[in-house]
Amino acid sequence: MPPPSRRQRLLVLLFTLALGALLFLWQLGSTGLVDETPPLFAAAARAMAETGDWLIPRVNGLPRYDKPPLVYWLMGLVYALPGQAEWNPLGTWAAALPAALASIGVMLALADTLLLWPQPGLARNADLASKPQRLAEQGSPTAPGACSWLITPLTAALSFALGPLVLLWGRVPVSDALFSALLAGALLLCWRRYADRRQAWWMPWALLGLAMLTKGPVALVLLALTLLLFGWLQHDLAGLLRRLRPLPGLLLSLLVALPWYGLALLREGRPFWDSFFGYHNLQRFTSVVNHHLQPWWYFLPVLLIAALPATPLLLLALVRALAPLRLAPWTLQPLPAATSLARFAACWLLMVLAFFTLAATKLPSYWLPATPAAALLVALVIQAGPADPAVEGGGTGTAIEAGTEGGVGGRVGVVARAPLAWPDRWAWRLTLLLTLVLAVVFLLAPLWVPLIADPELPTLPAELLAGGRLLLAGLLWALAALLGWLAALRRAPLRLLALQLPLVLFVPTALLPSWSLGDRLRGLPVRQLAAHIQATERPGAGCEPLAMVGILKPSLHYYSRRLVIYEGIEPEGLVNLAERLRRERRLGQRPSPPAATPTVLVVIDRTTAASPFWQGLEPLELSRAGLYRLWRLDRRRLETRAAELRAAGHGPTWEQPRPERY
Fold first, then answer.
1. Contact 447, 157 (CB under 8 A)
2. Would you state the torsion angle of the CA atoms of residues 355, 361, 364, 365, taken in this order, to the nearest 10 degrees?
3. Confidence (pTM)
């Protein structure tokens, strides 16, 4: 049977695009920026568009050296479009659009790769995986049929998009989704070049340069480790390198990325070198920064959670793809290049796991680069199953003949399929069970939602239950389990697709409304105070300085368009505030004595305001929203209280180095 036609391929890609738009673009601008990191990215990008300085990102009057500028540039290009107040009032469209489009791009890349290079299903045992020559002669018992060639690309795209981490970071305006997409594109193009020498050798290296311009040299490290492991297991490292042409390729990557690094170093000098390379790259890998201490096995549960509900399928796929390693790896037979995608994906996932396990600083978002590989493995392990007529009825099925070189899979033979192995049955049953368990968790929401106790979200439990969102979520997950069970009587890939489609509906009907509720309860109060601050200006008094103490929300800076002095809940925070008003100088802020600017606007949360050292200052309360109060505070009283705290041993700390300050 021939591979999919151009028309079939286009239809699958268009359907994938429509699903991606529903998952990542629907209601993208309906909620505000989520504290704390997204407003920093958004503010820096907006500042680039407004000031015309596209070299160094700046937030709140300070340079932001944590990431290279590509994500800021993409956000800034959207911020530069006219009419922001009408179509982008909350800033989310411009800030989150790169992450959303990057996630959709990965969906399309996964689907397109599997459409052009249909893969045999993952071998059912180590013997099959280690004897490609016999498979070439007899046909693969796990090769896809015509239906699989069209459904498997879609299931791979949805396995990626419906992952909990991807659903979250695909809508959050930070650099992680863009970096993961560019790295995924570079790795997929490397494999495509290996599978077909007619593919352009320079394309993966160009994307690698863009990935290095998004998050730094970690992109090169992950790509190199993946290629080395894959080439070693294939016993074809030399052939892989010949096709990829790493020396001119790496030169191309450096030509894309290095000009910005050189210009930034030339302008900023030692502070840029120490912060970007020293702190945000080397120190994050070798030591724990910003209190992100986690055990060495941290990414193992992250791997399990990130693949829900298909975690059993992913584990089975990893065992299948790596089963030959139970033998001596140097005795493995290389897989045909055009059918080695599962092995490549396993190497990809393992290298992300190994690298970030070795890193001292660990965050859930570090797992994002592995999610496309996990999606490929899930789609390929489910590709052949019990419901294929060839399996259940003992008839015939299709198989990709090994040893082909071309771009779209090669010749197809008709062979007898083996009966389904017990691991396949149990992996699918456990997947259905996990889906059903999650459905029950949602349906039992009245029992556990009232236990949520967050002072910033006091009405969240009642509003969640009143809206019926969790009940709808439970019904959709139960429907997914039911359809997955019923579809198991059909072709194998169809059962996974049947399970996935109700989960696609879960996103716009239950997940996004719950997200909007959280934004209204947590983010709206800060936006309301920001609007009041913009409207508050004393005639003839100039611009009062603005501070936020206690709970620190960078969104106040973004939405107020004002420089904000941020200080914590400790007594030193009050002392720092008094000194910084008199002494600190940054872009947009000039130090001044109380005689020059006698008052300061302070946004303070309820808990911090109740602290003894904030009592008795006689502030004028201008507004309140949620937990927060907007005070106008006499600086002379602030100075007096700061002197008392210094005498009690609470000295200023604001001049100490703080790489994460904003």
1. no
2. -70
3. 0.90
